[in-house]
C-alpha cells in the first residue's frame, strides 16, 4: 500500500523547486568543508591544491555521471570500476601496438560501451536484478583484466595523449574542461530531452512508464550503455594521467562513484536526482578525501570514510523523502 | 509451527537436477581434461578448501532468503581473520583470538542488520558501505602489512584431523548440521521463511520482523568470524586482502544451489552442493593451469547463468 501512494505522490521531475533546494544545501556543505579545511590546513587554499581537487573530482564525476542515469532508473551499476580497468588496459594495448592515440581512445570508449550494453541486456532481456547482474559482471571483468594483463604493466604513452589527463589549457587542467562539457551534456540530456524525462519516469514508476508507451527496455539499454561508455571515457583520462595501466586500477573507483551519486541527492529508489547534484557529490567526496590527505591521515582510512559516507547519504536521502511525504 | 516448516520446505526433487547436474557435469569435465583431478588427495583438497566458503554460503543462504544480500562478508572475513591473528599473537591464545573474531564479525552483522531493518537501507547498498568500512578497518589495524608469527595452536586447526577427518571438514559439517536444524526444525527457521515470503504475517503474529532480520545478519557476521579463524589458520598469517571477494563465491554457491533471489525460499543442501561446485570449478581450472583470474571470471559467468535460470523458473 505504502509503495503505491509513495509513487503517486513523488513527482517524477521536480528539478525547479525541490531539487534546486537539495543542490543548494549540498553546495553549502561543500563550502563549509572548504572553510573548515582552509582553517585546518595552510596548503588547502593553494592554487595547486585546488586544481588538484578539481582534477580528482572530475575523474570521479566521469564515472559517477553515467552511473547517475542508471540510479535514476532505480538500478545500480557495480561494474564501473572494473570496467575502467579493462577499458584502460585494452586502450593502452591498442595505443602501444598501433601507436595511434585516437584508435586507443575509440577502443577504450567502445570497450566500456559494450560492457555497459551487456549489463543492460542482463537487466532487460535476462531480467536479472541490476545490482547482482553488474556485481557478477564486476568479477567477470576483473578476471578478464587480470588474465589479459598477466601481471604486466603498460607504461609510457605518447606525449600528446598524456596531455588529456595531465595537460593544462589557460591555467586549468584539461579534465576540468571535459568535466564542464559532460556536466552540460548530462544536464541537458536528463532535463531537457524526452529520453531524459523518460528515464526519470521509468525510475519513478516503471509500470506507469510502460503503460504510457515508453520503450522501457530500450531506454534501460541506453542508460547502461551510457554508464559503460562514461567508464570508458574515465579509463582514457586515467590512462593518460597515470601514463600506465595495471589490472588493479579499478578496484578503488566504484565505491567513490556510488558515494558521489548518493551524496549528490540521487535517490537509490529512482526518479529523483540530477547530474549537477552528482557533480557536487563528487566535489564533496573529493574535498573530504583531499582534506584527510592534507591533514596527513593515512590513505588506509579512505575506504572506511567512503563507506560511512555512502551509508550516511542513503540514510539522509530516505529521511528527507520521508519528511517530504 | 512444525507443520508450517514442513510446508515451507521446498520440494527437493524439483531442485536436485539443477545443481546436481552442474556438479556432475563439472566433475565429469575435469576428470576428462584435468590430470590428477580424480585422485583422493585432490578431491579431499577440494573439500578442505571449500570449508571457509561453506561457513559463508550457509548464512548467505538465510540472508538471501530474506530478500537481502551481504556484500560485506568477504571484507568482514578479512577483518576478523586479522583480529584472530592480532589477538592470538598478543595473547598466545587461540580461543581469545576466535572470541575477538566472533565479536567483530557479529558486530558487523548487527550493524548490517540494523542498517537494513531499522533504517530501511537497501541491503546491497548498506552492505556495500560496510564492505568499505571493513576493508578500511582491515588496512588500518594491519597498517597494510601481513600479521605473521601467530601461535601454532591457530595454524594446527587447519592441518589437524579428528578420527582421520580434517578438522575444517568436521567444522563445516557441524555448521551444516546446525544450520539445517535451525532452518528446518526451529520456529526461528520458519520465521526466516516468512521474512522472505510474507513479512506481514510475522507482524500479525506479533513478532518483530526487524529483530529477526538483525538476527539473520548477525549470524552471517558471526560465521564470518569463525571463517576468519580458518582463514588465518590456513594462511598461517593475517593478511589485509585475504578474503576480499569471497562473498562473491558465496553468492555464486547460493545461486547455483537453487535458492531463489526473488521468492524467499532457500535450500541449504543445494547451497552445500553449490559450494562444492564452485570448489570443483576453481580446482579444475587450476589443474589445467588457468590462472585465478580465469577462475574468477568463470564463477561470474556461473552466477549470471544461474540467476538467469532462476528468473526463468520464477516466471514459469
Automatic annotation (TrEMBL), chain A:
Keywords: Cell inner membrane, Cell membrane, Membrane, Transmembrane, Transmembrane helix, Transport. GO terms for cellular component: plasma membrane. The keyword Transmembrane helix applies. It is a multi-pass membrane protein. Its main location: membrane. The chain crosses the membrane at residues 23-45, 57-76, 102-121, 128-148, 168-190, 220-240, 276-295, 301-318. It is found in: Cell membrane. The keyword Cell membrane applies. GO terms for molecular function: transmembrane transporter activity. It comes from the Bacteria. PANTHER family: ABC TRANSPORTER PERMEASE PROTEIN YPHD-RELATED, ABC TRANSPORTER PERMEASE PROTEIN YPHD-RELATED-RELATED. This is Monosaccharide ABC transporter membrane protein (CUT2 family). It comes from Bradyrhizobium huanghuaihaiense.
TrEMBL record, chain B:
It comes from the Bacteria. The chain crosses the membrane at residues 16-34, 46-65, 71-90, 95-115, 162-183, 212-231, 294-312. GO terms for cellular component: plasma membrane. InterPro entries: ABC_transp_permease. It is found in: Cell membrane. Its main location: membrane. It holds the Pfam family BPD_transp_2. The keyword Transmembrane applies. GO terms for molecular function: transmembrane transporter activity. Signal peptide: none annotated. It is a multi-pass membrane protein. Keywords: Cell inner membrane, Cell membrane, Membrane, Transmembrane, Transmembrane helix, Transport. PANTHER family: ABC TRANSPORTER PERMEASE PROTEIN YPHD-RELATED, ABC TRANSPORTER PERMEASE PROTEIN YPHD-RELATED-RELATED. This is Monosaccharide ABC transporter membrane protein (CUT2 family). It comes from Bradyrhizobium huanghuaihaiense.
